[in-house]
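thought: fold this chain, then report.
action: predict
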Amino acid sequence: NVLTVPEDNFTVPAPGDDWEWLVARSPRVNNYMCQSPKTGARFVMAVTPPIQDVLTTKSIGEILNQLKRQFESMGMEVGEYTQEPSTIPFRNSYRFMASIRKDGKEYRSIGYLAQAGRLYNFQAFVSAADDGEAFKSFVGRFSLIAPAGPVPDYSSAITAVYVLILVVFIGGGGVFNLISGRPKINGGLISVI
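observation:
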């Protein structure tokens, strides 16, 4: 019982043969839920379209604040989220947890955030006594179909184009001024006029 989604570049096996997959797609995010009809356990994964942003401690904090506000709007009391770097599902991921109270019952929200050309957000709600190992194992079996490659850094390309423009503009202007007998001072500006 393996879910493979080439358009979101991942594959992940369900925790067991009896687990079911539910899929909800939208332009902003694709949601995948794996649930056990026997136990009622649910593991949720949200995948964004391709992005260039790089996860940082600050951006993780902003995401967790949004999650906290969403849960509070559903009548849940949410404790502070804790976050830490993780190697699950792969290097440069983050793990987060928070205590949640709803209708007098205690739960834990456990999640992982990972980026590989897209943002992959994994979440589970478990009883306060659950150690979260089944969810950790589920996320640990997640894999990319194809390497996402490094997130492009366009700053060096922009700098190179800018330098090329300056060289052509000023150097070309200087050559033009030399040929035409014009002064060489601020050659680029003079050649444009």
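thought: worth noting. Helices lie at 57-73, 133-140, 154-180, 187-192.
final: tokens above.
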